[in-house]
Amino acid sequence: MKTPLLCTALALLGATACAPGDTTEPVTRRDTIQVVWRTPVSDAGSGLDDLAIDGRAFYTLVNGVSAYDLQTGALLWRVPRPAGRPLNLLTHNGRVFVPASDVFAVEATTGAELWRVTPDSFGRVEAAVDDKALYIGTDNRRVIAYDVATGRTLWSREVLAPTTYPSSVNAIVAHGDTVYAAVLEWLNQSGGRKRGWMFALDRNTGRVLWTFLNERADEPHDVGNHAVAGRMLLINDLNGSAMIGVDRFTGVEVWRRVSSSGYLGAWDTFKVVDDVAYVASNDTYLYALDPESGRIKWQTPLQASASSSVVCGDKVFAGAYGLHRANRSDGKVTATLFLDAQGVVTGSYVRSRLQTWANRVYFVGNDGVYAVKCD
Known about the structure:
By secondary structure, this protein is mostly beta strands. The chain has one helix at residues 4-12; strands at residues 35-40, 52-53, 57-60, 65-69, 75-79, 90-92, 95-99, 103-107, 113-117, 128-129, 133-137, 142-147, 153-158, 167-175, 178-186, 194-202, 208-214, 226-229, 232-237, 242-247, 253-258, 271-273, 276-280, 285-289, 296-301, 308-312, 315-320, 322-327, 333-337, 355-357, 360-364, 368-373. The strands form 8 sheets. The protein has a 4-stranded antiparallel β-sheet, with no helix packed on it. Strands 2-3-4-5 form a 4-stranded antiparallel β-sheet, with no helix packed on it. β23 (276-280) and β24 (285-289) form a beta hairpin. It is globular, with a radius of gyration of 20 Å. It starts with a helix and ends with a strand. The model is unreliable at 1-30 (pLDDT under 50).
């Protein structure tokens, strides 16, 4: 359904005018998981985007950097995407941050640019932000802290010495006074052999506090997306098909769980709620585990590699082409979206990671931006 009045109103407010296919349409088809709104899009993205959300808008990498109203799905504003597609967006204190070959910040309500900087090498990494700084990594093994208000460089640290083959920072988490940076190091020209490093850095100075190395002889291993859970740092080893718990104060490995499925490990980041860690994995399972010991509380088969999870109330959602809703208590899948009775994708499917706010889950599908109810 075309909504020219809505597009005109947005233009008068200073927002980018609606492009064809960007108007919100009412949802008439009823699935087991209730769709609140769907906004059709013409560019759904790469499918691995980690998107941002706050109490006002859902920020995506659709046709640029775009903001959609949480309640209605209306396009609020859009700015051009930088060269080198970002891996994630971040929002904090009324700003949206875009880390890529250029790193920039925009005002969350209007999309107006606040500052822009260009790192000395590509900054396409899953970045982090706190009240003080935006932390990015580069493909020359460097972690950089930029002032959130001005973009001024607060500190820059090369965490790994130059190597014969490529190595780059691929994910960062900021927690308290510490920044945790994951580095993937190739050990041959093809990248068939690799190992992963985790560095804990002082938030104020960039000083390295400890280093954790994840490698096994003649096997590809890495450290990727990670999360803090009390004393533990929970790390995914994509190539080694493992989940790892490391003491975040000492860098000592406490536990490791290796999948025997033959699939890769998880792209997903652990979601830690009420002392339980949830993660969706490429090995086709959704997991709930104890972050202190790595003991699995339950694991639920999803029949497809899963790229994302999110916790909403007493439910946990997983994106595995279709959208799955499971009980947090026992992992039982109670509803799906985009799947027929045989579990086959019917046309639409999930392409992005998931975000949640209040009682809704938000994501980008192959044909639109979606909001669904959690219960």
